[in-house]
Amino acid sequence: MAAKKVTIVEMALRDGLQNEKVVLPTDARLEILKHLLDIGSRRIEVGAFVSPQWVPQMAGSMEVTTAAMKMKTPKGTEFSVLVPNEKGMLMAIESGVKEVAIFAAASESFSKKNINCTIDESFERFKPVMALAKKHKIKVRGYLSTCFGCPFEGKVSEAKVVQLAKRLHQLGCYEISIGDTIGVANPAQVQSVFKKLKKAIPVKKLAAHFHDTRGTALANILEAYELGVTVFDASMGGLGGCPYAPGAAGNVSTEDVAYMFHGMGVKTGLDIEKMVAIYPWLTEKIQHTLSTKVGKVGFLKPLGKVQ
């Protein structure tokens, strides 16, 4: 029987903003965070401790994270940050955050282009991060990107996806987010990959991360949900993209995912009306229209019977 409740991990402040041209200052990012809390988001990635030289949009993540950790938040709220290496992990510890995310790729070319190292080298970088996490009792989430296709190599081996997801699980990641980084996946592919993953890793430890470049993100989420996945990454407004894949769209929009699940009678804990209400404000901050469908048009408002 399919779950009647799912969790949406909010990506707007990290995966979303890091791929936008506009660089928002700390106060604007904190303003977005307050909106996310108000709409009901309880798992939010607030930034990334990466080099501002390579990702200028994430400069100031220390200020954002430390301010977030001081906020009075509803019970059950969890903030996390992305860390690429030991240096980033030390910054995370300093910020006081209780969850971090590490990231690997299922494609060697994407790994080299994205984080300037091979896949095996990336796992070597994770070792000191995991040791520090254990010492400081910090939860670690693992991202595995390009699981359904790579902008450089094209097709990605499903066996390799399973093998690398298992490595992240064995490393100690409490949850592994399976990513369609450039938005090429289709439901048949999602079914094939997640069926194999479920044989290797408990499904409750799997999450799905889809981008909506080719309009298949919601169909892919539904397929993963029917296979037992209940945690999905999404981004308010559909913010973001992929700097290494020309034309790639952002994360699937939080509004669209929530609308689909609510219509199916599946709870997300999110307030769609509030998300729709802040769409104009968000587009003004980002300085362009966003890809969300529901955010733009809201709920159906019948015009009335025609006599």
Q: How would you portray this structure in words?
A:
By secondary structure, this protein is of the alpha/beta class. The chain is 43% helix and 14% strand. The chain has helices at 12-16, 26-39, 61-70, 86-95, 108-115, 119-135, 158-171, 187-200, 217-226, 254-263, 272-286, 294-297; strands at residues 7-10, 43-48, 78-82, 99-105, 139-145, 175-180, 206-210, 231-234. Strands 1-2-3-4-5-6-7-8 form an eight-stranded parallel barrel, surrounded by seven helices. Helix 8 (187-200) runs parallel beside helix 9 (217-226). The chain is globular, with a radius of gyration of 18 Å.
What series of H and E elements makes up the topology? EHHEHEHEHHEHEHEHEHHH
Q: What's the total count of β strands?
A: 8
How would you classify the helix and strand content by structural class?
alpha/beta
Q: Major β-sheet, in short?
A: 8 strands, parallel, barrel
Strand order of the largest sheet: 1-2-3-4-5-6-7-8
What percentage of amino acids are in beta strands?
A: 5-15%
> Given the structure, what is the number of helices?
12
Overall mean pLDDT: 95
Low-confidence stretches: none
Radius of gyration of CA atoms, rounded to a whole number: 18 Å
Q: How far apart, in Å, are the first and last alpha carbons? A: 44 Å
- Determine the fraction of residues in helical runs and give it as a percent range: 40-55%
Shape: globular
